Amino acid sequence: MLYLVGLGLGDAKDITVKGLEVVKSANRVYLEAYTSILTVGLDTLEKFYGREVKLADRDTVEQDSDEILDGADIEDVALLVVGDPLGATTHTDLILRALEKKIPYKVIHNASIMNAIGCCGLQLYNYGEAVSIVFWEENWKPESFYDKICHNRKNGLHTLCLLDIKMKEQTTENLMKGRKIYEPPRFMTVNQASKQLLDIIQNRVKSECEKGELLKDTICVGVARVGSDAQQIVTSTLEKMVNVDLGGPLHSLVIPGNTHEIEVEMMKQFVIHSDVNLNSLIK
Amino acid sequence: MLYLVGLGLGDAKDITVKGLEVVKSANRVYLEAYTSILTVGLDTLEKFYGREVKLADRDTVEQDSDEILDGADIEDVALLVVGDPLGATTHTDLILRALEKKIPYKVIHNASIMNAIGCCGLQLYNYGEAVSIVFWEENWKPESFYDKICHNRKNGLHTLCLLDIKMKEQTTENLMKGRKIYEPPRFMTVNQASKQLLDIIQNRVKSECEKGELLKDTICVGVARVGSDAQQIVTSTLEKMVNVDLGGPLHSLVIPGNTHEIEVEMMKQFVIHSDVNLNSLIK
Q: Where does S-adenosyl-L-methionine bind (chains A, B) (predicted)?
């Protein structure tokens, strides 16, 4: 059996009781280590589980999946995934490859940022499409996420912005020369995401403001390390968010659409600047 | 401390290790029993936890929250919630009332249908706004969910349809007479939801079909008891879904928007009618 076990978002103890039983009894256990991270490392997990856990990077999960699936028709193999295992199609793809080999699978779900973002007070049912904000490069500055946020806002919906993660980047030089030397991991902060959004706002100066359009004083919510003991949430304006220090990864940014009073009351708990006023949000 | 502990979606063992520690050590433990249900009952939970758990219905959580919050400033009180605690604003409201009384709170997240729906193979990031399909009554047949589904489809997005739950309904007679006699709980099935959607489609016969519009042969995915050992998933047409038996609650329905090949491959695993063909979904 191939088990896909969600680890939740915080530390080792955010695994479910069912998931822990699988980890303890499986023949082999892999930790998927490129789509997200916990606040604890592999050592802590191995200690908590009392067993060896192999790191599986993107190549192992996506190309060399035979290693993971080897023998899973007769024994139990577990792939641990931070958050919930089925957020992205990466793991759906692994399931399809398992099914091709007649290997049965089971998913043990857990919290992911897609539902735990409820912590900022905005109702989950009022979110539109989630967007990914990617690191801009010198010659590649996509803006599609901005338009999706505005589109959600025009429809009164909140937007969860997932911020870029670069886990095993190679410099162009190393890539060209085929050297497997990787840069240190990079995680986009709420500051960087806000800065990119402000740059887009500035590029699109218009005579009139359209409904839903983002402005530098649009209220937003920055979150860091959701679900962990070190969770931080700040409500502020997009402009001020550029300078808010939310500490280590992972960060996410939420741009509200239409808000209800109770949502605003909750967001108020996280205001840190005395001149930021949320009353404008209540219709 | 007020703890809001997510129980996940399946059975007693879907609680996290962290959540279980809280349940075992808290002074009082309540189970919120009206927004969702597990596949196991209160008895099973009490046995698994080795302690007493009080049932908290809508009145207790929403109006008589003083009972739950009583003493939570000096001792630990846990409210257990099926799925994740912060999906709906009901529990945000309880947090606000706790904060008013200077009671600190902590949320222990878990899987909810909002992320576990990834099990049907459609990528979470491509969902638009979720909709609630409510039980129609003789003189009240809202159709707004239909329009939201079409709106999502027009934008290429999938829709998760949450199906109605009636937990402590009173007949009009009992309500008028102030008798606290409640009807048995009702959970909308995928059949009922599909039937209501088909009725709307029939009501809106048009000469031309608009982009994104639902038709009786639109492919959809019915899911039941997601995350439990008794999970069932069926891909079929809306029309055929009216007669698919997915067993006991809870059910949800997914209407795909634009689909990628890998999403379609996964959906194919759940086709039960030989004349249902998903190839039309691949653009």
A: 9, 84, 87, 112-113, 163, 226, 251
Q: Tell me: pLDDT of A209 over 90.
A: no
Q: Average model confidence (pLDDT) for chain A?
A: 93
Q: Strand pairing partners for B33? A: none
Using CA coordinates, name the residue in chain B closest to A21: B13
Q: Which residues of B touch A157 (CB under 8 A)?
A: 129
Higher pLDDT, A207 or A144: A144
In the predicted structure, residue B171 carries a pLDDT above the cut 90: no
Counting every residue, how long is chain B?
A: 283
* Pick from A172, A188, A182: nearest CA to A134: A188
Superfamily (CATH H level) for B2-111? Tetrapyrrole methylase, N-terminal domain (3.40.1010.10)
pLDDT at A39 over 90: no
- pLDDT of amino acid A224: 97
CATH 3.40.1010.10 boundaries in chain B: 2-111
Residue B254 Cα distances to A137, B54, B157, angstroms: 37, 34, 11
Bridge-based pairing state of the strands B219-224 and B186-187 = unpaired
Contact A103, A1 (CB under 8 A): yes
Give the residue with greater pLDDT, A212 vs A239.
A239
Task: Work out the number of other CB atoms within 10 angstroms of the CB of residue A142.
Answer: 13
For domain B114-281, give the CATH number: 3.30.950.10
Chain B residue with the nearest C-alpha to that of A86: B118
A107: nearest Cα among B114, B265, B229: B229
Please give the C-alpha separations between residue A17 and each of A114, A178, A209, B18, B110, in angstroms, as whole numbers: 21, 43, 51, 9, 12
Q: For residue B283, is pLDDT > 70?
A: no
Q: Which residues of B are annotated as a binding site?
A: 9, 84, 87, 112-113, 163, 226, 251
Q: What is the predicted ipTM? A: 0.94
Residues carrying CATH 3.30.950.10, chain B: 114-281
Task: Spell out which residues of chain B touch residue A263, defining contact as CB-CB under 8 Å.
Answer: 89, 92
Strand order in the sheet with A159-163: A131-133, A159-163, A251-255, A219-224, A232-237
Residue that the structure tokens 């899973």 belong to: A72
B-chain residues near A260 (CB < 8 A): 89
What are the CA-CA distances from residue B166 to residues A123, B35, B41, B254 (Å)?
21, 9, 17, 21
Which tens digit of pLDDT belongs to each residue from B108-125? 999 999 999 999 999 999
Q: Which of A57, A40, A90 is nearest to A249 (CA)?
A: A40
The pLDDT of residue A8: 96
